[in-house]
Amino acid sequence: MKSPTTISKATIDRLPLYFRTLRLAQDEGLDIISSDELGRRLGITPEQIRKDLASFGQFGKKGVGYFVNELKRNVGGILGLDNHWNIAIIGIGHLGAALANFHNFVTLGFNLVALFDEDPDVIGTTVNHVKVEDIANLEQIVKERQIHIGIIAVPAAFAQGVADKLVSAGVKGIWNFAPIKMEVPAGMHIVNEDLSVGLSSLSYHITRQ
Amino acid sequence: MKSPTTISKATIDRLPLYFRTLRLAQDEGLDIISSDELGRRLGITPEQIRKDLASFGQFGKKGVGYFVNELKRNVGGILGLDNHWNIAIIGIGHLGAALANFHNFVTLGFNLVALFDEDPDVIGTTVNHVKVEDIANLEQIVKERQIHIGIIAVPAAFAQGVADKLVSAGVKGIWNFAPIKMEVPAGMHIVNEDLSVGLSSLSYHITRQ
DNA sequence: TAGATTGTTAATCGATTAACAATC
DNA sequence: TAGATTGTTAATCGATTAACAATC
């Protein structure tokens, strides 16, 4: 595998789509897939796909295509999915509970190992076979269970406080659903998932057609 | 307001962030804000912000900054939020129910006017004061209540079928949470919100630091 | 007037597309 | 061998950054 010098963010964001499509192709029993077919299934040009993949190495066979199993394993490896990161969700409201029930996490190789809330009525309940624990014990439990990724699903006003705790407990990354810009130390990885962006941009487009 | 010739997708996706920050500034009672301060709050360069805004018109005062109320109203208008689009959610599982409870929709000016599911146990229940109706009546109700945007929160296998019905019933846009590439007629606006992309790209980054 | 800050043009940087040689 | 398809280089396109004139 080529050492990734500088890969575009756009490329990285397409890799999960390739992974998803390869998994489906695998389920269909497909052995070989071309960049053309992959592109057709995703609405992405085949050139783009070949370029994206080529930045990490040579995974295909000229004149033939890509072996589905092999490419899926490789793309999964590039994304680091075989690390089977331990994840925790903080804030078990409607969204947090929905996230806890995503079986996509399992498919992608993540382990949901803890849920946290501050509401006494919620603490002690079980969501998707995982017990909700007191957020007061967040730092201790994150360390004990070696949680790598914290998923923030608390109201915006509490998000920074939760992020601070996660950082000091030593997580490697944060997936943030609170609509707020978080301050974290340089080097901490954070992905923001502000749902209002998608809906608003849809509004923009339908407004002017 | 300048007629938007060709605005970058990146610009459009930043507008909701500006809107959100302006709303917060308004709540703080701030009258005027500079591109510098706006940028500081969002982690975006002031030049970028000025460029983005300038593609739609001249909203600021040189030497002064932007009037918070006025700019917020303008950005909201650009995003088409004052159209108060009618929205419906299809698939009231964990995610659909969480979306139905988002009060951000209200803040952004959207009206949640219908919820649909196919499960008889779910039909007839109420989520956030809205009744869940039989998906069999989707097309009729979408027409009757003039629903502009359909939010798809059903399993991937059913998503295309739902999209087809939404299109034939005349929605203007689709916000899709199913991890699948949808086929829709040219001109139909569709925004995909595949949550596994964000988490996987986080995995990519923490894998190589 | 002096200081601050926008709006806009030019320069740079990055990402996509096109073309095609390599090769299965 | 002929046809198909990758991997890579070059060309184009688009987005960001830098610089600065305009002006409040």
UniProtKB/TrEMBL annotation, chains A, B:
Q: What ranges are recorded for DNA binding? A: 17-56
UniProt subunit comment: Homodimer.
Record-stated family = Belongs to the transcriptional regulatory Rex family.
Q: Which organism is it from?
A: Selenomonas ruminantium
- What's a single GO CC term here? cytoplasm
| Function per UniProt | Modulates transcription in response to changes in cellular NADH/NAD(+) redox state.
Where is this gene product found? Cytoplasm
Q: Which SMART domains match?
A: CoA_binding (SM00881)
Summarize where NAD(+) binds, as residue positions. Answer: G91, I92, G93, H94, L95, G96
Keywords attached to this Swiss-Prot or TrEMBL record, sorted alphabetically, are: Cytoplasm, DNA-binding, NAD, Repressor, Transcription, Transcription regulation
Question: Which Pfam families does this entry report, sorted A to Z?
Answer: CoA_binding, Put_DNA-bind_N
Write down what this protein is called: Redox-sensing transcriptional repressor Rex
The answer to whether the entry has keyword Transcription is: yes
Domain named CoA-binding is located at 80-181
Q: Name one GO molecular function term.
A: DNA binding
Gene Ontology BP annotations: negative regulation of DNA-templated transcription; response to redox state
